[in-house]
Amino acid sequence: MSQDPLVIFTPSGKRGHFPVGTPILTAARQLGVDLDSVCGGRGICSKCQITPSFGEFPKHGVTVSEDALSEWNKVEQRYDDIRGLPKGRRLGCQATVQGDVVVDVPPESQVHKQVVRKRAEARDITLDPVVKLFYVEVEEPDMHEPSGDLERLVIALEEQWEIKGVRADLHILSTLQPCLRKGEWKVTVAVHLGDEENPPRIMHVWPGYHEGAVYGMAVDLGSTTIAAHLCDMTTGDVVASSGLMNPQIRFGEDLMSRVSYSMMNSDGAQEMTDAVREGMDALFTQIAADAEIDKHLIMDVVVVCNPVMHHLFLGIDPFELGQAPFALATSDALRLRATDVDLTIHPLARLYMLPCIAGHVGADAAAVALSEAPDKSDDLVLVVDVGTNAEILLGDKNGVLACSSPTGPAFEGAQISSGQRAAPGAIERVEIDPVTKEPRFRVIGSDLWSDEEGFDAATAVTGVTGICGSGIIEAIAEMRMAGLVDAGGLIGSSEQTGTDRCFADGRTNAYRLWDGNEDQKPITVTNADIRAIQMAKAALYSGARLLMDKREVDHVDRVVLAGAFGAHISAKHAMVLGMIPDCELDKVTSAGNAAGTGARIALLNRAARAEIEDTVRKITKIETAVEEKFQEHFVNASAMPNSSDPFPILRSVVQLPDPSFNTGGGDEDGGGRRRRRRRG
């Protein structure tokens, strides 16, 4: 367990351990807490005001002393003298962690921006980056033994650091001589140590001994969000993290709609390439400003992404990925200059893209394999990176299989009647009393359940705005456990279920999850919502089941849920729906943003790049689109949890009612009803 102090934020409830001296604003950013700052933490804008709390906190298991934060400083005093700070308030950019502390973020300090739920996960990484700093002393020029300054610097690097064959670009030559003379022939050199394609190369030269850092960026380029982690290459620390919505969303929510856009518009692919490159460069600018570093000190970038994003980011038309045999332009790892993809960071910065596994299984899945290492597992592990397109790995030391499954955007709130992405005010947790059929829920931004005292006040600013992916999964699973929806996905009427929360909605029924108020309309779960989730979860399960068939097994030892969304899924609710195979619930774990973690490993450890390239070559790729049994599994998996697989482990711990609300009318979920009649 970490010995660093524990920082707990309210009302979000987010917590984490941070070293003594960490500014509260930095801790908030690393945890994804909604704390505003316009000036980049310089103590100018005062938007990052926070209120520390002291005393006993049994709920959180901490005691907060009066000296849990650093002392009031001159910057805060100056602001208080000029504009005044409310009593008890501190500036988050100035107050630093000294001990366990509970920090409240008042409503006026919250941005209420969309929560992009991707963050750097804690993981041990052996620090060995491809860009390192070297201090060298260079021979002065001698008229009797004439040679160029660069040549003598190269010799110094070889003699003093055993780095052979170092090259330099024109950018270095234009600044080298002033640096050498200013440093009195002592300089610090940033060197890219090279790889199988490129020799070592001088990236930057500083006169004398340079105590600063050089930086790298680990990027998870998703179809919905772009998340990036700025890392200090000398310490391995994540200095700052942030994310933004992928600007390509305006061309289509899912990958195939973007492929279609490129097919139907002559400049479509280039438009999407320009959009994602501009978005990534803007994100780099923002993160550098947040961290208060020079953007041009970013010298190495690692990018992971799915195959369609891979092609569009590189400026390759994804046309071939839209049709069998789903051929990639290249599946190998790529070693590029950052300028090749229009990133305005250090002029000599390099960019490494992990290899793709197959036409629909990309570098993000390779990054998950690097992070979770199924090929090193003694037991059979299923790793599912849940997103708009799910990447699935199944394996152990005896081998790894991989496939992708087109789940679509329903898991992220799209295609849901009251759906939204994860943001303050979105319902994220749901419970339904199996006797009264009454619901209770929690929203992002509050620790309180909807039936607890103070909930209305706690959510007064955000309101209850909709339901996000984790919320809709829990809602439907709870409805299934409460007997409000049958295995085929039909919601019962008020008479059939015994609650007026179920009401007629056209030819089917719906369930009223929240009654609404004068400002916001009620939130309901409709049969169309259930159908959208059924289709998404059936695709996910079918991919996993197909890999199990290939491995000739009918169960797995453990399941790892990866991805920004996967980190927030309840294992029990996912299994009730039949999203994942039957498994002991305590063997279902979350890896958080494993793709982002894999990118960070590749950024900070150059040996990991060769390792994942070798691993990918050994992975067996399965293309779901051409597998005959995929459709059979899909039909069976449309039921909840499944019309064919019995889920004995789940049923031993969860009581699933078995109502049938099929009255023979309507066309909603007809396939599910026919399957129930066959089981009779």
List keywords for this structure.
single chain; 680 residues; alpha/beta; Ubiquitin-like (UB roll); disordered C terminus; Raco-like_middle; DUF4445 domain-containing protein
Any chance you could write out the topology, listing elements then pairs?
Layout (H helix, E strand, L loop, with lengths): L5 E5 L4 E3 L6 H8 L17 E5 L1 E3 L4 E3 L9 H9 L7 E2 L9 E4 L26 E7 L11 H13 L8 H13 L3 E7 L8 E7 L7 E7 L3 E8 L5 E8 L9 H10 L3 H24 L6 E8 L1 H8 L19 E4 L12 E4 L9 H10 L8 E5 L4 E7 L2 E7 L20 E7 L6 E5 L11 H4 L7 E2 L1 H13 L12 H4 L4 E4 L2 E7 L8 E4 H25 L6 E5 L8 H7 L10 E5 L1 H11 L1 H13 L1 E2 L6 H10 L10 H6 L16 H10 L1
Parallel strand pairs: 1-7, 11-14, 14-16, 17-26, 19-28, 20-22, 26-27
Antiparallel strand pairs: 1-2, 3-6, 3-7, 4-5, 8-9, 9-10, 11-12, 12-13, 15-16, 17-18, 18-19, 20-21, 23-24, 24-25
Report on the structure:
The structure is a single chain. β4 (55-57) and β5 form a beta hairpin. α5 packs across α6, α8 packs across α14 and α8 packs across α15. The protein has five domains: 6-109, Beta-grasp domain (Ubiquitin-like (UB roll), Roll); 125-207, Ubiquitin-like (UB roll) (Roll); 215-353, Domain of unknown function (DUF4445) (Nucleotidyltransferase, domain 5), CATH 3.30.420.480; 368-409 and 532-675, no CATH class; 410-527, no CATH class. Residues 112-122 and 665-680 have low confidence and may be disordered. With 680 residues, it is an alpha/beta fold. Strands 13-12-11-14-16-15 form a six-stranded mixed beta sheet, sandwiched between helices. Strands 27-26-17-18-19-28 form a six-stranded mixed beta sheet, sandwiched between helices. It contains 18 helices and 28 strands. 29% of the residues lie in helices and 21% in strands.
